[in-house]
Amino acid sequence: MRDIGWRLFRIISARMRRPVKVLLVSGAILAVALLSTACGTERISVPKSSSNYAGAVLFNQRCGGCHTLSAAATHGSASNIKTRLVTNGPNFNTRCERPAIRVLYAIENGGFSGATMPQNIVVGKQAQEVAIFVSTYAGAKTQTNFGATPCKDQSIGSVPIASTTATTAPATTTPATTTPAAKPKKKAAPKKKAAPKKPAAPVAAAKGPKIGTATIAGLGPVLVNAQGKTLYIFEPDNDKKVTCVGGCAAIWPPASLPTGQKAAASGAVKQALLGSDPDPSGGQVITYAGWPLYAYVADSSPGMATGEAVNLNGGLWYVISPSGKVIKAKS
Question: Are residues 218 and 124 in the same domain?
């Protein structure tokens, strides 16, 4: 900054009248001073004592080149369409990102389109910290449409804790000991043949998880699990098989069916429409009218259906009625 002022001073002609020269030099110094105060003055606004501070720092370091979020002091989103770069990312000052599981999904999968953002730019606990930070502070300057829930009133939810795989110590082998051969015994007299046993009666499958119904405003009666959480179908399953696995299943947990059990109908649910399909990750998933059923982690309590008509993880999600009809209506 001082070099800029010195160069400006040298540009001014030595033969220029003194009053004009003084005025120009003073103006140059003032401009340099203003530039000096503007450079690097913005800081992360999240208090260091906050649980979100670590996420803010990580976002500033790993995501600031592409995204704008004032709380992390980043300005990566170009406001002028003519000057924006291919790496330009969403402006989180005006974009609401809730629940946090959506942000975690984008981190793990390179955004929602997978076109530019690298996958797993942060991982494990750091990815969780960034996801919760973004979900907490994003959307502060967004405009809420009439009738819509403001971003600050939407649930942040939770993100799954990274699983740890336990390692098993290799088994130690003990040298075999040789025992002296036993003396041959005398042959026993042949026993009489026992009468054949009658075949055992088939064992009926034990009753498993209950599938019931709940009435949700704007949607009517829909299927719910034993905890009262709304159940959804995934359109790409196409009424045939389970396709939501891996990261998708972390956001949309399948309605798992324990081995040897079958789902039990409750209320208006029809037992004849209940079934199961193999889960590629292992086990079985409860189906209704042929559709595999899933819950949604953003539904933090019974009576919620925030996943209705949501386009996420590669397809649309809908609730299903006790009659087996897929309800394609926005919640």
Answer: no
